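Model: You mentioned two targets. I'll fold them one after the other.
Researcher: Yes, keep them separate.
Model: Target one:
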Amino acid sequence: MENNTKSSLAKRNISKFMRNHMAVLGGTILLIILLACICAPLLTPHDPLLIDLKQKNLPCSWEHPLGTDRMGRDLFARILYGGRMSIFIGVVSAVGATLLGVILGCISGYYGGWVDKILLYIAELFQSFPYYLLILLCVGLIGQSTRNLFLIFILTGWPLMMRVVRSKIFSLKQEPFVESCRANGLRPVSIMFHHLLPNTLGPVIVNATLRVASYILSEASLSFLGMGVPDTVVTWGNIMNAAKRLDIIQTQPILWIAPGAAICLFVLSINFFGDGLRDVLDPSAL
C-alpha cells in the first residue's frame, strides 16, 4: 500500500511538472547544454588552450564553427570546455554551501536558545556586506585560484540555506512525532538528520538548484573582472574577459556574444527548471 501511495504521488508530481511548459523547456535546454559540454571531445577535435597564431581571427567555417580568437584558439571548443568548468564550479559550490547551510540550519533550529542566537549573528554578519563586495574582499585576502573560489562561494553562500532549513526545523520540532522520538530515546543528531531533515528536502533542493545559476553568474562576473579563476583555466567568464578589448567588441562581436549567450541560456534554463521544481516540491510556494 505504501509503495502504491509513493508511486501515485510521484506520478502526480511528474504530471504537474510536465504541465509547466517553461520548466520542461528549461529542463530540455539544460540537458542539451550539459550533454554538449560533457561530450566536448566528440563534438570538436580542437584543444581549447592550444595557441596557433597562424589561425588567429578566422571567421566561422566548418572547421571552426564560431571562428577563432586573436590567439588562434577555437571559440567553439573553448565554450564547450569552458562550460564544463563553469558548471562544475556552480554545482560544487552550490552543493558545498547547501550542505553547510543544512547542517547549521538543523542545529540552529533544533537547539534554539544561545546556539541559535550565535549562528544567526554569524549569518547576519555575512549578509550585512554587499555580496560581490564580500567576495572581492575574500579573493583579495586569500588569493585567486579555483580552489579558493570554491571555498569563498561556500563560506559566503551558507547563510541563506541555513535560514531556510532553520525556519522549517523550528516549525517541525513541535510536531508529535518529534516528542515520540525523544520518548524512545533517540539522540538529537538522529532526530535532526533522520526525521526532521527529510521533511525539508523540497525547498532545499529547489534553492540548491537556483544557487547553481547564481554561482555561475558570480564566477563569470569575477572572471570578467580578472578576479576569478586563473586565465589558464577555461571558463565562460574567462572567455568573455579575453574579448573585452574595444577593438574586439567592435570587429569580432562573436567572441563575446557566444559565451554571453551560453551563460544566458544556461542560467535561464536552470531558473525555469528550478521554478518547476518549486511548484512540485515546495507546496508553501503555491
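Model: Target two:
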Amino acid sequence: MGNAIQWLRSLFYVGQVYLMMPVMAVFFVPMTLISRKWAWRATRTWCRYARWSASWMVGLRSEVRGEVPRGEVLIAAKHQSFLDIIILVSVLPRPKFIMKKELVRAPILGWFALRMGCVPVERGKRSQAIQQMMEGVASGRQLPGQLVIYPQGTRVPPGKYLPYKIGTALLYEQLGQDCVPVAVNVGLFWPKSGIMRRPGTAVVEFLPPIPPGRPREEFMAELERTIESNSERLMAEAGFEAGCEG
C-alpha cells in the first residue's frame, strides 16, 4: 500500500512539474528574446520550483555540498538522472551543457538551452562527435559561464559502470581552466526512467577542482577516481550497498 501511495504522489508530482515548464516558458519568453540572461533566470526558476515541490509532494529533499563555482570553469559531473541537471541549473550562475543534438528539437527545452549557450553534439561516430563538441565550445557564439559535461556521456544508474570518455580531457586541454568534479547520489531517488520518486535526500557535491595542465592520462585517472569514489560515498550514506540495485 505504501508503494502504491508513493507512486500516486509521484505521478501527481511529475505531471504538475512538467506542466509548469510551458507555463513558466510562456511567461519568460518575451524577456528571453530581449536578453539571454533571462534564459538562465527562467530555467533556474523552474529548477528551483522542481526541487521545492519535490520536497513536500514526494518527500524528496535535495542538498548541494561544496563550493559552487562562480567563474569560468569546466564541470565534469556524474549523471544518474534528470534530477542532477535540475540541481546543477538551480545553483550555477551561468550553466551551459554539452548535450545531445536531438534535444535541440525538444519543444521549449531546446530553445532555452540554445539561448543559454549549450553545445549540441550529434551522436554517431566518436571522432565526429568530438570534433563537433570542440568546434561548438570554441565558437564565438558561446557565452561565458560554467561548461558542464558528463564524462560517461549518458545517465548511469547506481550500481552500473560505463567508462569515462576522452572528450572531457580534450576540453580540459582546450579550455585551460580548472575542472570541477561533481559527485551525486540522485539516481537512488529519481531513476533514469519511470514515474516513482522515492523520499530521501538527493545530494550533488562539488569537489575540489583539478587545476589545468595535468597530463591527459593523469587527469582522466584522477577525474574518474574522484567522481566515482565520492559518488559511492554519497550513495553509501543514503543506504545503498554496492552490488544492490534497488
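Researcher: Noted. Anything on target two?
Model: The two ends are 18 Å apart (CA to CA).
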